[in-house]
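Is it possible to get an amino acid sequence alongside its tokenized fold?
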Amino acid sequence: MVRRTKEDALETRNRILDAAVEVFNRQGVAQTSLNDVAREAGVTRGAIYWHFANKVSMFDAMIERPVCPLMINAEDRDARLEADPLGFLRASTDEFIGKMLNDTSFRSVFEIFWHKCEYIGEMATLRDSHLEEGENHIDIIQRAFALAQEKDQIDRRLTPHQATIGLIALLDGLLFNWTRKPGMFPLASYAPGILDAWFAGLGVTPKPCG
């Protein structure tokens, strides 16, 4: 019975977060009330407060749910990185773009984070904390570029940190603009060629994953 109760509570929590994604994306975070989310989820306002202290904590939980491919299965990730660091980087970028294209819930959270929220007060503090967590991704990418140089997969015109910032800027620019205005360009067909050209500029053209 206790196990079933915990499962029910988790199911309700996830239903609330799914509803929050829908409503935040539809009308913006500032214009959304907890009543709006409760109505979308089909739960009472009391159920909302059982799981979340306020809208800020709900937003925080929503941001925490999507898992970047770089953070999945650290042991396997590190083995792939050590064996072929540049191939690992290209496969990871392909996987991330694939999730943005094919996983609506994953993409919606980024759309909300980038385009549907005004960052002032508590929300600004929350945004900054999540950006700081992104340093973990930077460390992994930089380690891969450093190892790629050691293995002579790329030349040394850029430092590993410069290459890391360049790749992040490229991906952020593509995805930020595509989620803002999908009709601007077809991400699925443009991204592979753009990434090919960028990686070629490092002195090599890694094969896309898949």
